[in-house]
Amino acid sequence: MDLNFTPDEIAFRDEVRAFLKDHLPADIREKMIEGHHPSKDDMVRWTRILNKKGWAVSHWPKEWGGTGWSPVKQYIFQEETMAAPAPQLLPFGVSMVGPVIYTFGNEAQKKRYLPAIANLDEWWCQGFSEPGAGSDLASLKTTAKREGDHYIVNGQKTWTTLAQYADWIFMLVRTDPAAKKQEGISFLLIDMKTPGITVRPIVTIDGGHEVNEVFFDDVRVPAENLVGQENKGWDYAKFLLGNERVGIARIGMTKERIRRVKQLAASERDGERRLIDDPRFREKLAWIEVELKALEMTQMRVLAAESKRERGKPDPASSILKIKGSELQQAIRELALDVAGPYAAPYREEVEHGWNEPPAGPDWASTIAPAYFNYRKVSIYGGSNEIQKNIIAKAVLGL
Amino acid sequence: MDLNFTPDEIAFRDEVRAFLKDHLPADIREKMIEGHHPSKDDMVRWTRILNKKGWAVSHWPKEWGGTGWSPVKQYIFQEETMAAPAPQLLPFGVSMVGPVIYTFGNEAQKKRYLPAIANLDEWWCQGFSEPGAGSDLASLKTTAKREGDHYIVNGQKTWTTLAQYADWIFMLVRTDPAAKKQEGISFLLIDMKTPGITVRPIVTIDGGHEVNEVFFDDVRVPAENLVGQENKGWDYAKFLLGNERVGIARIGMTKERIRRVKQLAASERDGERRLIDDPRFREKLAWIEVELKALEMTQMRVLAAESKRERGKPDPASSILKIKGSELQQAIRELALDVAGPYAAPYREEVEHGWNEPPAGPDWASTIAPAYFNYRKVSIYGGSNEIQKNIIAKAVLGL
Amino acid sequence: MDFELSEEQRMLKDSVDRLMADEYDFDQRKKHLKGPHGFSDGVWSQFAELGLLALPFSEADGGFGGGPIETMLVMESLGHGLSLEPYFASVVLCGGLLRHAGSPEQRAHWAPQIASGEKKFAFAHAERHSRYDIGHVETKAVAQDGGYVLNGEKSLVLNGDAADMLIVSARVSGGARDRDGIGLFIVDARAPGVTRRGYALQDDRRAAEITLHNVKVDAQHVLGAPGKAFDAIERTMGEAIVAACAEAVGCMDEMHKQTVEYLKTRKQFGVTIGSFQALQHRAVEMFVALEQARSITMYATMLAASDDAEERRRAISAAKAQVGRSIRFVGQQAIQLHGGVGMTHELKVGHYFKRATVIDMFGGDADYHLAKIADAGGLAS
Amino acid sequence: MDFELSEEQRMLKDSVDRLMADEYDFDQRKKHLKGPHGFSDGVWSQFAELGLLALPFSEADGGFGGGPIETMLVMESLGHGLSLEPYFASVVLCGGLLRHAGSPEQRAHWAPQIASGEKKFAFAHAERHSRYDIGHVETKAVAQDGGYVLNGEKSLVLNGDAADMLIVSARVSGGARDRDGIGLFIVDARAPGVTRRGYALQDDRRAAEITLHNVKVDAQHVLGAPGKAFDAIERTMGEAIVAACAEAVGCMDEMHKQTVEYLKTRKQFGVTIGSFQALQHRAVEMFVALEQARSITMYATMLAASDDAEERRRAISAAKAQVGRSIRFVGQQAIQLHGGVGMTHELKVGHYFKRATVIDMFGGDADYHLAKIADAGGLAS
User: Fold this and answer.
1) The pTM is what?
2) C127 near C139, Cβ under 8 Å?
3) Quick one: C101 and C219 in the same domain?
4) Which of the ends of chain B has fewer CB neighbours closer than 10 A, N or C?
5) In CATH, what number is assigned to the domain containing residue C277?
6) What is the pLDDT of residues B93-119, one digit of tens each?
7) Could you tell me if B398 lies within 8 Å of chain C, comparing CB atoms?
């Protein structure tokens, strides 16, 4: 048992750090620190910088641009980029449809799609959730009817993150309405420019536009856009959702937010006293740090065991990472709310290319309440924390 | 809306206080403050003092010794006695079987039993729970078979509080094994000296002996000891359990414990510093006080609505009193554990007539950990807090 | 001890409830929000017609002599409706200052103008580093020509952009946080030297940053004895905190109701999600947190006008602490139990969550008030 | 980064696990408790035979050179078994003092006697008002005839009544809480002037109050440089806290297992209570609290021997804080989910609850350690 990284791993970490220091554009980094969302252009720029270095799709097979890094190195890379802080790569291409295509797609599909994902030449979004389905994903109703060499797609998807920028969408569609729930589902790739697709924004409580509804009205999709076999889509979806767990605790990001909150509390004054000089505040922060350190160790334990497990079959204990990870992401944003105090109240509008002037108080305060509101989502999406507890109760505790 | 007591209520409160000051024996009061259990003799002495004053069974009908006090006065009386602190009257007679007898019993039973309850001439215990039943009370298995003018009782009761002192036990027994669960149950009064009854102590994790198992082996009970009608016992039990809610939050007792913890924290030193000078400790205590004050108001709201409600049909919202009341009883005892710190660890044995010398540290510390352990029970008994939440979900929220 | 409302109180409550029911469904509210000041002048007129704006003033001043209980009833109802009108700023805060610091002449002059809705007021008090300390005033008031000249910056002034009149706190003597030396000044919001920058808050109400540059105040517009205004500010802020607690209770009550309703109707895996025990228990825990907040708010309401300053302060801090913690729990769980749709701007529940969160940040959060109670030696008497 | 045990570590763990399985079922434990010192001399001999008592000493001193990881494995296993033997007092605490403060001669002399089980040690350190401050020493050591004379009162001395030898901390100079001026002295527990009063703890282990009246100590029994012992005490107490955390993890693991097992077998309303979702989720929350405690204990274990004192201290405080909070939650919920039977002396789960609670009170509770981390500027590097 040894907590320390090997010399090789330390050298790797230093290499990643140095790269981030030299190549993460200052304006993007600044935006991330300030708690703003990166723009589409920011995402494209950063992905291409990484792809040029060969690090954009590090966990892919080498043939398609992967690095062959060990799970530990993957972890180090992810933590360091979150801590930088750099934007997280668009997961819909890199972590979701990419692995599905290189695992279940045909050669033509691999050649057609994978390089464009790695370089963010094509922006992907995810067409899984439907209205009213929630955590019961398999209850989906969107249909794809085969007509000659096309599928005709009708239905609606929702919670489609950043669909407003998307060139492509990967979809779960029902191809056999007679089959029972999990059967009769297929996995389709659809060009967002196809006639019959309408994207409607969903504004969230923080005032942001991250998610959308996507409507499909007799959308004609070439049959060659089917991934794998017809009616086997649920298997690919499970594979994809299993992959989604990697880094789900977002420990590096929470660490970065802790540093940020410390810095803000050191800058904000209550009369003459700095907030960070309040012992109660420091103890609350210390408790978040302790829980995060414990979770980091849990993450490492899961990671260390990962190499011995079948790919695509995640450790059910990784549900802990989702539960506690999301709680801590929320806790640090709630503590930031306490730091901003009355200055959390003013609302700052997002305008075309960035933000207008902060209406009152310190510049940094305007993103605090929106982040607090927005991060309520992390215990809801990707299987709510209640669902995660059901999973652990069943799969780990045998209840 | 007016929070204040009426002048009449204030005069009453002052009268109760003055009586307690003059008549609560100093040795009993001391024992209560120190966190020891009152002995059987203490209970008898105190009940008789109250009974002499006419206050032992204040909520009973006047005919049987009641006072005719309003619900508010009943509340004041209960809070003041808890705050004194005086022992709570043995509930099994005063609050449980007494009301069942004067409501459902015949005249002979009333005359036979009620005066002896009021004066604690006869000590009662409760024979409801059975092994394995837990919160599913109606699943009881103890049988009473009619033979001539007797019932023959066989079975086992458990969690029988202070049965070691009891002269009588009131029982739920199954008189019709063919009827479904809640039907076929009768309510019997049994003399503990009847042959065939065995009491076996259950030692709890605090080392105390409060509860017992009681075994019934062909116990012959005169048929006249049946209360009300045969096979209607479940109705009487529901009536009894409804009454049990009065004062269930034990706000006066928690208030008294808060005063005690403040006093201990002011006396105990960490080096040269008193524990009460630690702001974090004081803030934790303040939070308990705030929650208790809120609960006290909730209690008063329930109480104020009480007069308009049918007797024996408690406000389902009173489940809040059980949940939060038990949480606060536990919270203040957990905070006392923090005050005692390392001196919570030594174990002090209870001996025949009191306690041996404290083994280490301050005198008061030896009851702290046992109280912490013992009070875990308050969220379990009388319908666990989980059951209470089920009740509110169904009866109040309609879920 | 009596928790019943009087006949008049019940009528008051019913009238505000009806106004909210009639004028504040979700679509109407969106329309009100587009008004010139982010609220509805029409609804504001109805407030006046119903006598709500006259409520706290004495009958001698043309009011109805309502006390904290009446204010509680109105505020809870406004919380239910998520009202956008500046009742809190104009009537509760500035009405309170007028009552506690104003001379009979000032009250006779201004109370009717607040009561009629003719003049809307705002309390320009907080400053950049005052945080929750109500004695923090750096804005200067210098005596000149029998009146005063004000210079300074006021921040987070609720209703500051729509107000006709401002009540400005400014220091005539002493250091930034001295209790002594604070004065209150009535200033026309359009007076020379007053610059306002208005903005929306997270909960759709509006506030302003206000700069005072050589603003002249006549002697007759000095509210109370200059330098001795702290007590009036403290009493007013105390009453306002309790009123805000009542509004939060209204918000939480709605969040809880909407969540329970959602649990009863939303189906997943073929059953209503309200059949899942873990969610049932969560809903019960929300209910407990709500009822605890409601109870302590009643407690503080009944003590808000007490002359025992110590008792009053503790009760107010107790209320804000409990309500603050309840706000966090009830709000977060309301969103959680609604799942994805709870996160959307299109559902009302998120708007209650935001209003309650802004209230949490008004007048001190739970930690702040727990520390106050702790420093005062605790709550229990 | 590697969480695998070495072959030797796995053998060590298996051997202690087996010993506990063989010797420590509930009935056997009751018997051990009736031994003359409240534990089993037979099991103690087996500890010695398995080499557990020699574990932390260097090979030069006749030990096995085990480090914090080996100690963690043993302590966690002892926690599973609820062992009554004074491993913690004799080997972890006093063995640690000997390692960190002893001269080669002293180590050569005493280590084999601890390792063989021949001599049982106890650390007489805490005093009436020391609470969690390990630098609080009022007991006096006065130089005399080339040795020292000790006078003072020691409290809560784990294994104090069964110990053959005591390591006593006493002050040669300075005030009650000065870091400088503390010495360590090896004293025969039956020496003239030593009075002991033994008693049981809530968790069935034993401790003693010890009075030292003119107790003479020869120069050769002074451990390390007199007056400079604080560092050795701090390192030892740090290692001991981590070892106690590991023991608590063993206890919590058992409480969680037994609770899940109970949920699977206990029936109510015709079904196993483990089918109720609210109880399932509670069991999961216990699992999360347990795994967090396990993880942070591993973290502190791996840093317990670090030469970076700041990093070491923070890691130890982090572990004790997380483990303390997990103890409260897991313990309380284990009892709650067992219902009435969980309250009884006859079920093992309550005994784990008590042991864990006593561990919580050793070396500082969660609040104490969080304050330490906060004062050090936080945890993150």
Assistant:
1) 0.95
2) yes
3) no
4) N
5) 1.20.140.10
6) 999 999 999 999 999 999 999 999 999
7) yes
